[in-house]
Amino acid sequence: MDLRLFLNLFAVFLYSTAVIAQSSDEAARPGKKKSVVFILTDDQDQRMNSLDHMPEVQKLLIDEGTWYQRHYAPTALCCPARVSIWTGLHAHNHKVTSVHGKWGGWPKILQQGLNSKYLPIWLRENGYKTYYAGKLYNGMSEKNGVETTTARGWTDAQLLCGASTYQYHDPPFQHVNETNWNNPHKINKNFKGNYSTTKVADFAYEYLREAVKHDDPFFLAIAPITPHVQVGKDNGPPVPEKKYKGTRPDAQIPQTDNFNPGKRSGVNKVWHLDRLNDQKTKLLNEHYQDRTEALLSVDDIVAQVHKILKDNNKLDDTYIIYSSDNGFHLGQHRLGAGKKFAFEEDTNVPLIIRGPGVPKGRKTSIVTAHVDLSPTILEMAGMKQRDDFDGRKIPITDGDLDQREKSDADEYANVEFWEGTSFGFNTIQGKNVTGKFVNAYKSLRLVGKSYDISYIIHCHNNAHELYDLSNDRVQMENLHPAAPAPESEQNAFESGTNTLAGFPIQKLLQRIDAALLVLKSCKGDEILCHKPWAQLHPQGNVNSLRDAMNTRWDEKYDDLHSNYKVGFTQCYKNGKIDVEAEGPQWTKTGPKPGNQNLVSFTNENDPDKWAVSSNDTDVDEKWTVGKDGEEEGWWDDWE
Ligand SMILES: *[C@@H]1O[C@H](CO)[C@@H](O)[C@H](O)[C@H]1NC(C)=O
Ligand SMILES: *[C@@H]1O[C@H](CO)[C@@H](O)[C@H](O)[C@H]1NC(C)=O
Ligand SMILES: *[C@@H]1O[C@H](CO)[C@@H](O)[C@H](O)[C@H]1NC(C)=O
Ligand SMILES: *[C@@H]1O[C@H](CO)[C@@H](O)[C@H](O)[C@H]1NC(C)=O
Ligand SMILES: [Ca+2]
């Protein structure tokens, strides 16, 4: 199988917000060092309703805390997403774009200096005890030198490391503590007979029981591989714990309009996919059941963590955060099992927070993203924000949530992706699809008072997607003027849908393209990732899409758009960040011309031609399958 990597640019999510001082409730005031337990699952969806099948999450977190229903993974892939979580940086700034090779995984993290610039290091400086149990990053294997240099910053950690990280039985851990970051223990492969999720849980409970004995504040991360597919040997869906196997025979992929739809959707290869046959949808549904059953072991963790905190009178003093590194799709848009797309299934992930001052049973639709988690945890620890953070603290009190919800100017999430993707589960015109394809893109989620928009620009063919999620929650109708259409039919725009939320689509596109231009280049305090309009209108009189749509700005955006379009001049199938190939950039002083000779859009109906029509080969790419088994694909797009 062709293992060259693609760059997937997942849109980074940003939101512009009015500069309103956040009212700090007691619980969140700097100076109070609260403890935090962070439960991070791997590839858990929100859009396929996985949380509905987790009764303890419902009872102890959703009913007792706040559910952030529009929380996004800025890059829908384990390693880039996790680095964004732990550093507060978008992938275009931390530069870890892949799970392996030259572009991602452990070696890249070390090379970028990120092992000494992430959350546990900062928390320790503030007197925290820091603990980790489970999978931290990808590629923490012997091959990549993890036995000499491992993760810093943990008081004590049991990290899933090495070739069998994604095996549900006999999990391998590396024991790390504060004295051995530079000469850690070897990976212990002898947890024979143990089930990965319960072993992670066991280590975590040990840490928690130790931590609650002391007055020191603590941070504990619990990161099982659940419900990631099993990789290495017996590749396939996640393996539920024995006691849960077969207990959820009725769990079913939600039958949304985008589930194996009769009509085509998306762009490029996705547009060309054949509808899945019954045998394949049955496999996907079995996969869904395995995910559901595997997640019950995580549900147990939620219950036990809650119990330990409660028994030790720490519940009122400790936040519990629950999230997943990226989402997952199973059959939506005719895709197989996987992630990496800008579709909501892949990018919109669970985030629930409970703890001191956090409203109970509240559901909020404010847009938040993984880059916001480290800022939020620093706030919980009573620490100052860092200048280079791309994210910002999430409101966790009624007052702050009200304020953010009221603001019309708080609307962005930016998703980006480098790398490629495969379609091994699919056929096109009856033929199996082999190989990996360019899947680099930039995308924007934009949510305001009366609009809910998703906008995606792919490298391949310069294809654009534009969805009105208020009417089309599952992204079936591409409203872009150049959207593909079935032969001899017109696309939605051509057949008369030329407004979105009342805005003329042509004018809307100029504005959101400009916002994305800013966001794809945003950086810490220099170019705020949540205030694109402030860059575009330094006079300060435009704070939202609605403001920017005012006809008085038509000429400005006509002009800007004719000179600076978001796009790519060359596509890569791997994680290479080639700024020169990423079109114009935004800088502190305004737009910077890039090569405008963008890969041109062709609505190519011949899939064979289509597959080779852009220059999608990176000649540098010599990467081959790793020995640690992490890279071996399973059916479609499992990484
Ligand atoms: C760290 O691990 C080593 C090796 O087991 C052990 O000797 C040492 O006591 C541990 N240090 C702490 C602080 O737990
Ligand atoms: C791990 O396996 C050992 C040996 O079979 C067993 O004694 C122990 O209870 C298991 N631990 C967990 C958490 O399953
Ligand atoms: C296509 O893929 C299916 C499923 O993996 C396989 O059974 C079949 O043999 C393949 N067909 C060809 C022509 O390779
Ligand atoms: C494709 O890329 C190769 C290698 O970089 C380059 O030599 C070639 O000119 C490119 N072709 C096109 C059509 O851009
Ligand atoms: Ca993942």
From TrEMBL:
Signal peptide: 1-21
Biased composition (Acidic residues): 629-639
Region (Disordered): 244-264, 601-639
UniProt cross-references to SUPFAM superfamilies, sorted A to Z: Alkaline phosphatase-like
The keyword Hydrolase appears for this protein: yes
InterPro entries in the cross-refs: Alkaline_phosphatase_core_sf (IPR017850), Sulfatase_CS (IPR024607), Sulfatase_N (IPR000917)
Protein name: Sulfatase N-terminal domain-containing protein
Organism (species): Periconia digitata
